[in-house]
Every structure is written in structure tokens, then in C-alpha cells.
Amino acid sequence: MGLTEAKDTGADERAIVAQAETALEDIQKIRTEVSKVIYGQDDVVESVLLAILSGGHALLVGVPGLAKTKLVTTLGTVLGLDGNRIQFTPDLMPSDILGSEVLEESDTGRRSFRFIKGPVFAQLLMADEINRASPRTQSALLQSMQEYSVTIAGQHYDLPKPFHVLATQNPLEQEGTYPLPEAQLDRFLLEVDVGYPDIDAERRILLETTGATEEQAIPVITAERLMEIQTLIRKMPVSETVVEAILSLVRAARPGHGFDKTDRHVSWGPGPRAGQALMLTARARALYQGRLAPSIDDVRALAGPVLQHRMALNFSARAEGIKLSDVITAIASRNLN
């Protein structure tokens, strides 16, 4: 390496450090603002923010009343994103999401079609109770989630930038629901389990949400600033040790790759998107916690949210009452030490 090249490398590293410090300040402001409205769900807020900072989508799974919808709307406000919400129902049609063409007649009598954009044309789309819509309607989101565009009547339309889908799903009530197909689940960067708040958080909820006034979130950053942070995260270095840990974890989660517990209990395992998700979210988690590079601890912490919707137990494992989370924990314990 020549002297000039070495100087350039050092300058690039200093620039990334300076950008990371500024980004960390912005992230701290985001966390503070969200905490004014969302109580006692720090892990959930972190996971959803990691998905957005990584440029991906997230699936929030939890029973009703746990502030999933409120979290999404709050994040849209705080991050300065233009948002839309779709309540998924069995009679929802693809055109209700994507939009449709209407026939118009001009003053001169000339007729032409005009495309009216649907709610998917937003920077932050909330898909509420996504598993209540038919598979045909669910598939309408596939192209937009992967390609950030839609095609209507042969015409291509780009979606706004950035574009994120935050979907919610009720894990208990299965009557009248349609399980999400594996191809669509794989498009979600993370699956976030939303649990009940602890007693201190629930006490705060009781006191602060039933009075005459309620705290409101305000914008902290802009959509353009969010995209700058997303670009920075993709530039963060990842050590060979962490890369090998990600590969080891993902491959061990697939049947036929040498891990006995996977072979006995798992029907199908994660594809390459799982490794990509771990690479991105591990970087985002490092920055979120004030570090310049991810560690194996980041991979370990993200194993569940990244893998649990990209794997399935076989019939015998389900019959034995084995939980997928326990299998993932076992895989991580074996391959991330």
C-alpha cells in the first residue's frame, strides 16, 4: 500500500467515525422521543428501529392492546416519514393496496385512463393484522417489499424512498386468518415478538394515558437523514470472525448440515436472506449501542428475530411440544461460542 493510499484509508476511517458519532446522537434523540409515548417496550422498540435503520421491513407479532399500532405511528412521526395504514380484512383487494386505473373523459370528449395511487405509496406503511387478508391480497405486497416498486397494467411505478413495511399479526386468534406464505415471511428482515409490559411500565401506562392530556411525539430527523444513516450502516466494517459466525449459524439451522438437533426437529431452514439480514442488523445494533463494528454478541442477540420466521418445525417436533425458539437457542449456543 502506497503512502497516498494509506492516507486516504485513514481519512475514510476518520470520516466514518465522525459520521457514526453524529448518527449515534440522532439515534439517541429518536429513542428519547419514542420513550415519551411508548412505555416499557425497550426491546421491541430497539428491534423495530434496527429493522428500519437496516433499510428493511418488520413483522410485529403480539396479542391486541400492546401498542403495536401506536409504536408504528409514533416511529413514523419521529423519523419524519410519510405514513399510511391499511387494516387488512378478508374482503380487501389488491387494488385497495396498490391503487387502480380509472377511466376519465376530458372536456373535449377524449377518454383516457389515469392511475390513482393506493396507500402503498408511502414511506412507512403499516399493514395491520396482515394475516386477515387473502393470499391474493397478501401477494400484492411482495413486489413492493422486495423491489420497492409496483406494476399496474404493465406500467412500472417506483415507491417513495425510503420505503418500509411494518406489519402486525395476532398470534392467538386463527379463525378467519390466512397464514403468510414463506416467500412473504422471508421479505421481513425481522420478526419481533411483542410481549406484555412489566408492572412498572403498566403502572405508567395507567397513569399517563387516562388523564386529560397525553404526551405526543414530535419529528426528530427527516427521511433524508434516515437514508444517510442507512447508508452509513452499510459502510460499517464487519470482521471475518463475525462473518464466519453468521455463516455457521445460518447453515447449522438447515437440515442436513451436520447439527443433530436441526436434523431431528426442523422441516426447512433459512435461505441466504437470513445471512444478509444478520449482516445488516448486526451493524445497526452495533451503531445503536455506540460501537463502530458488530460482534458475535450482536449475532447471538439477533438470531431469534432473524431466524424464527425463516424456519419451521417438523410434525414430530410439534407433536413433542418443542418450541422453535428453543431450537434456535441451541443452534446459537453451539455455533456462536
UniProtKB/TrEMBL annotation:
Classification via CDD domains: AAA
Single GO MF annotation: ATP binding
InterPro entries with a match to the protein in the record: ATPase_AAA-3, CbbQ/NirQ/NorQ/GpvN, ChlI/MoxR_AAA_lid, P-loop_NTPase
Domain ATPase AAA-3: 57-190
A Pfam family hit: AAA_lid_2
ChlI/MoxR AAA lid domain ranges (all copies): 264-328
PANTHER family (UniProt xref): MAGNESIUM-CHELATASE SUBUNIT CHLD, MOXR FAMILY PROTEIN
Protein's name in the database: MoxR-like ATPase
Species, as recorded: Martelella mediterranea
Organism classification: Bacteria, Pseudomonadati, Pseudomonadota, Alphaproteobacteria, Hyphomicrobiales
